[in-house]
Amino acid sequence: MSTTYTYNWTNMVSKILEKTAKLLFTVEEIDNPILEKHRMDTCKTCTYYDAENDKCTVCGCFMSIKTRLLTNRNPKRVRIEHTHCPMGLWEDKELANYYRQQDGLELLT
């Protein structure tokens, strides 16, 4: 019985390490200052932008960081995503709807 327990424990630790590595190393930054500025300018005019804390109140991300990313960690869903505006305001409504559908949320029109 102890062999089974050890096997399960090792398996579980391996899966945890794999997921942790994925979370830590899969974020990619973009090298496009024009796109970064466009995203940030869009956020600054959005009603969901909390300027005092530099955060989006929908996704919870710090926007000065998120606007520079190709992929990002979603703090609410604990997954790696292609960086997008959850409200589709970065001309990425199709991508936003892909994640909204995964999360069981109403699609944007």
3D architecture notes:
With about 110 residues, the chain is mostly helical. The protein has a domain at about 25-100. The chain has four helices and four strands; from the N terminus they run ααββαββα. The protein has helices spanning about 1-25, 35-45, 65, 95-100, and strands at about 50, 55, 70-75, 80. The strands form two sheets. Strands 1-2 form a two-stranded antiparallel sheet. Strands 3-4 form a two-stranded antiparallel sheet. The longest helix is centred in the first third of the chain and has 24 residues, at about 1-25. The model has no long low-confidence stretch (mean pLDDT about 85).
What does this entry show, briefly?
With 109 residues, the protein is mostly helical.
Question: Layout of SSEs?
Answer:
Layout: H1 2-25, H2 33-44, E1 49-50, E2 55-56, H3 63-66, E3 71-74, E4 79-82, H4 93-102
Antiparallel strand pairs: 1-2, 3-4
